[in-house]
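Model it.
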Amino acid sequence: MKIILRQATIHDKSSVHDNSCCDVLIQDGIIQEISSQILEQADAEVTHPDLHVSNGWVDIFTFIGQPGYEHRETLKSGAAAAQAGGFTDIFMLPNTSPVISTHAQVSYLTQQSKLLPVNILPLGSVTAQTEGKALSEMYDMYKAGAVAFSEGLQTLENTGIMLKALQYLKTIDGTIIQVPGDKTIAPHGLVNEGITSTLMGLPGKPAIAEEICVARDIEL
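Modeled.
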C-alpha cells in the first residue's frame, strides 16, 4: 500500500530535510521518497494544514496494568493509546501484580510485545516485589530483555540497597530509573509545597524532599 503525506514539516536533526516542508511517500510501512513534490499516484493521501512528521516518540515511564490491573490498562489498550499519540516505544513500569521481578515475567512481556503495534520494553524491579529490602534477579531479567531497572512509582530510599544495585549493574552497564522523593519529609505530599497548597488545603511536598534524594543518588 502506498501512502503520501502532503506538505508535511519534517522534524529530524539527522536528516537533510529537517524543518522543511515536503511530500513523503510511504510504501508498505517504509519511507521510499521525500521531496518537495511527489507526482506519483498513491492508494491514500494525508493532507492537513499543519501536518508534522518526526521520528517515533519514546515514553520511558509508562504504567500498564497487565498483569493484575487489567481493569485499568492492558498491554493491547496501552499499545493502542501509545500508537495514537505517535509513540513507537514505551518503557513499562514494574508496578504490576505480580511485580515484574523475574526472568519469566520479562520474557512473557517481550513476547507479547511482538504482537502489538508498538514496542513495549519492560523495566525490571530493582528489589524483589519493589519492597526495597533485597535485590531482584536483575541479571536474569536483563538477559530476558529488560531495558533498565526501576522501583517504578516507588522511591528506593534504602541507601545501602541502592549502592549495591548500582555496583551490581556496572557489570552489564545497566541503568536505574528513579523517582526521587524522601517520604520521611513529606509522606503524604500531593502537590508542591507553597502558597497554592496552603490555600487549597492540600498536603504539600517540599522541593527538598526530591533534592536530597537526587543529591544522594548522584553521590552514589
